[in-house]
Amino acid sequence: MTTFEFSGYKLDLRKGRLQRGGQDVDLRAKSLSLLTYLLENAGRVIGKDELVNAVWPNIAVSDDSLTQCIKDIRKALGADAQGLIRTVLRRGYVIDEDRVHRVGGPAVSAAGAGEGVSDAPSIAVLPFENLSGDPAQDYFADGMVAEIITALSRIRWLFVIARNSSFAYKGQADGVKRAGAELGVRYVLTGSVRKAGDHVRLTGQLIDQSSGKTVWANRYDGTMADVFDLQDRFAESVVGAIQPSILSAEIERSRRKRPESLAAYDFVLRAFPLTWSLERAQNEEAGTLLDRAIAIEPDYPLALSLLAWCHLQRAGYRWTEKPAASREEGLRLAKKGAALSGDDPMVLAVLGAAHSFARDYDVADMHLARARALDPNSAWAWLRSAWLDVYRERPDAAIEKFEHFERLSPRDPMRYMAEIGIGAAHSSPRAMTRRWR
Questions:
Q1: Hey, what CATH topology would domain 111-240 get?
Q2: Rounded CA gap, 129 and 190, in Å?
Q3: Model pTM above 0.85
Q4: Which residues, given as ranges, of the chain have pLDDT below 70?
Q5: Calpha distance 352→19 (Å, rounded)
Q6: pLDDT of res. 80
Q7: pLDDT of residue 382
Q8: Domains 3-103 and 111-240 share a fold
Q9: In the prediction, which pLDDT does 107 show?
Q10: Are 409 and 390 in contact (CB under 8 A)?
Q11: Which residues are CB-contacts of 89 (< 8 A; sequence separation ≥ 6)?
Q12: Residue 33's Cα: distance from chain center in Å?
């Protein structure tokens, strides 16, 4: 797990928390992203254009937005970090490399390249190859990659290499092999764009660098009638497919580890597929693994949230003699996880599900809506939102969300829950009444 320590402060990238003396330091999301990028490139003068592209990809913002974020960071850090971020006239900003200590994760050099692979899954999306024979179409391929990087960056458990580092390998024949080693990532996504007339074919391939195996591959066809819509749909499809593919690969990797080498992250990986099971024994096994993870790392939001879901499942399926107590414990754990990581879509979706079980439908809707806003590609958030619509007897809205979940993650192990939900929506009193009018 990557942590930066500087001037008495600690920034934990996995948790997304900046702390001093164990206390959280309040910093807006964009300001935190800017600080992270500067820390990852400590010692290197970074121009304004690069910083804007890294923090606001594909969004037109003025220099004032960047300047305000710099002010926010300096104000939040106060006198203790005086001089940590220097303004280099007409060039940009730089962080004093001697005052920054990086713990864990891929070490990033001045050029943005990493050495060694972190414990957490990491990915680099390399520039897609333009096979159209028309250099003018490079903008389309580059825009596609930028969209995918932006979408992947919303996945909190995945370390995503910034666009500018990935694009350093553009046009290099050995880019895939070099990127894995130099950027210190576990996965590399490559692709190509071929345009013929108004028709466009997009291909993608996800490679596990440690084994050289292809984890996922697919192709998509569309037209150039609406370029930006095509980019959005491709990015959505790729991210929806990559999330479960990477998670499955990580779970398999964890299973191959010796028991004595397990840590909190590995316990969570092993518990993950068991958490969604409809078998009582597997639910209990998942709970045991998650208890071990929390014993190692008490403030692990994902572990707390998954354990919350285990308790909610026990209450829902009557796998306990005290369902009310399990429901309360599930809500307590979900709230704790969200308090530690209030901008993690998975954590928020579990909190929304917990409130759904407690029949606090308005509160549940609020958390689930925020989860979808933070990550429009979060299949789990869409699934739980659909079930909330079932509970509230909104069959049309429920079916629409279930179908969106299936488009996002067509091979998701939880797809059976969407099929059950669609059936429940069609069978709801409101749907039945409308059908017989």
A1: Rossmann fold (3.40.50)
A2: 8
A3: no
A4: 1-2, 14-16, 57-61, 80-81, 103-120, 136, 156, 164, 226-228, 231, 253-262, 410-411, 430-437
A5: 27
A6: 66
A7: 93
A8: no
A9: 37
A10: no
A11: none
A12: 14
CA pair distance 314, 323, nearest whole angstrom? 7
What tokens were used for 279?
A: 């078998």
Amino acid at 76: A
Number of Cβ within 10 Å of residue 263's Cβ equals 15
Distance separating alpha carbons of residues 181 and 158, to the nearest angstrom: 18
Residue 211, number of CB atoms within 10 A of its CB? 10
Going by C-alpha positions, the residue among 185, 183, 144, 177 that lies closest to residue 165 is: 183
Residues 6+ apart with CB under 8 A from 427: none
Gap between the Cα atoms of 241 and 433, Å rounded: 37
CATH 1.10.10.10 for domain 3-103, yes or no, is yes
Distance CA 170, CA 128 (A): 8
pLDDT tens figures, 186-204 = 888 998 988 777 788 888 8
**In the Cβ-directed half-sphere of 427, how many Cα atoms lie within 13 Å?**
6
The domains of the chain are located at: 3-103, 111-240
- Strand-by-strand arrangement of the 3-6 sheet: 23-24, 17-20, 9-12, 3-6, 100-103
**CA pair distance 345, 195, nearest whole angstrom:** 35
* Token couple for 13: 């990238």
Helices 345-357 and 301-316: angle between axes, nearest 10 degrees: 30
- Determine the pLDDT at residue 61: 66
3-state secondary structure the chain: CCEEEECCEEEECCCCEEEECCEECCCCHHHHHHHHHHHHCCCCCECHHHHHHHHCCCCCCCHHHHHHHHHHHHHHHHHHHCCCEEEECCCEEEECHHHEEEECCCEECCCCCEECCCCCCEEEECCCEECCCCHHHHHHHHHHHHHHHHHHCCCCCCEECCHHHHHHHCCCCCHHHHHHHHHCCCEEEEEEEEEECCEEEEEEEEEECCCCCEEEEEEEEEEHHHHHHHHHHHHHHHHHHHHHHHHHHHHHHHHCCCHHHCCHHHHHHHHHHHHCCCCHHHHHHHHHHHHHHHHHCCCCHHHHHHHHHHHHHHHHCCCCCCHHHHHHHHHHHHHHHHHHCCCCHHHHHHHHHHHHHCCCHHHHHHHHHHHHHHCCCCHHHHHHHHHHHHHCCCHHHHHHHHHHHHHHCCCCCCHHHHHHHHHHHHCCHHHHHHHCC
Rounded Cα gap, residues 99 and 104, in angstroms: 17
